[in-house]
């Protein structure tokens, strides 16, 4: 089994392969890029919220508000182990 750190580059390479991109228009690819950046910003905000000691409940609510319409699930596309 691959380590998690090694799996991400492989997944990204597969997603960015010519076959994967051929299925999407340039406009769709640009929309996906914007969505990924918005999700990353929302997660960065959640991390800063937790660092500030605001608590998981408050930070999760802020994450959900920031991700509304961007990703699926309670954690904006990120599955938590705990």
Short characterization:
The chain has 82 residues and is mostly helical. It has 4 helices and no strands. It is elongated and about 45 Å long.
What characteristics describe this protein?
4 helices; about 80 residues; mainly alpha
Helix-strand blueprint:
Layout: H1 4-15, H2 18-22, H3 26-51, H4 56-67
Helix pairs in contact: 3-4
Describe this structure in words.
This protein has a domain at 35-82. Helices cover 67% and strands 0% of the residues. The protein contains 4 helices and no strands. It starts with a helix and ends in a 15-residue tail after the last helix.
Separation of the first and last Cα atoms: 22 Å
Strand coverage percent: under 5%
Which consecutive residue ranges, at least 5 long each, have pLDDT under 50? none
Task: Report helical residue fraction.
Answer: 55-70%
- Largest sheet geometry: none
Q: What is the strand tally?
A: 0
Please compute the radius of gyration using only Cα atoms.
Answer: 15 Å
Counting H and I runs of at least 4 residues, what is the number of helices?
A: 4
The topology string of helices and strands comes to: HHHH
Q: What shape does the CA trace take?
A: elongated
The averaged pLDDT comes out at 81
> What would you call the quaternary organization?
single chain
